[in-house]
Design goal:
single chain, Aminopeptidase, 7-stranded mixed β-sheet, 4 helices, disordered C terminus
Length: 162
């Protein structure tokens, strides 16, 4: 599916909040306050994936988003959310590639994330994109669900100095 990636705008907030609510169970989805907090973090970045809307709407619709944070040489994927009809169509991969490129450009050398140990499709997605399990975090999610801590080194672009 053809999607375009753009920077988050404050007018997108309600749309990404709703997407997060649909993508995750109520005990895991972010509250409005939590989502706003992540967007305001120093080094935070949010990218929006848009796809063509219906012929009658003639405007693009938000299919997903990614929020990252960065502190010096360490990037973190806070969340990547893609609506069900747009999964396995390249939207998540496009968001991830752009987010990693932006982190790399700002000096990140490695990206970390957490994902539920029972979310097989997410684990497969991360592994497909070069992320490797570094450990297990006990009781990370509500209800005692564990998470895998995963990371990926970001390759330096040719000619880029350390």
């Amino acid at each position: 599916m053809k999607c375009s990636i753009r920077e988050f705008d404050a007018a997108d907030f309600e749309a990404i909040y709703e997407i997060d609510q649909v993508c995750y169970s109520p005990d895991i989805a972010y509250s409005r306050a939590e989502l706003q907090w992540y967007l305001r973090l120093r080094g935070a970045d949010c990218l929006i994936a848009e796809v063509p809307g219906s012929a009658s709407a003639r405007r693009k619709q938000i299919a997903g988003f990614v929020i990252t944070a960065q502190q010096k040489q360490h990037g973190h994927i806070v969340t990547i959310d893609v609506l069900e009809p747009h999964r396995r169509a390249g939207v998540g991969a496009s968001l991830l590639r752009r987010a990693e490129a932006r982190l790399r450009k700002r000096g990140a050398r490695e990206v970390w994330l957490e994902t539920a140990t029972n979310n097989e499709s997410a684990i497969a997605f991360w592994q497909k994109h070069g992320y490797r399990t570094r450990g297990r975090i006990r009781n990370y999610y509500p209800g005692g669900l564990d998470a895998f801590s995963m990371s990926k080194p970001l390759a330096r672009a040719a000619g880029q100095e350390d």
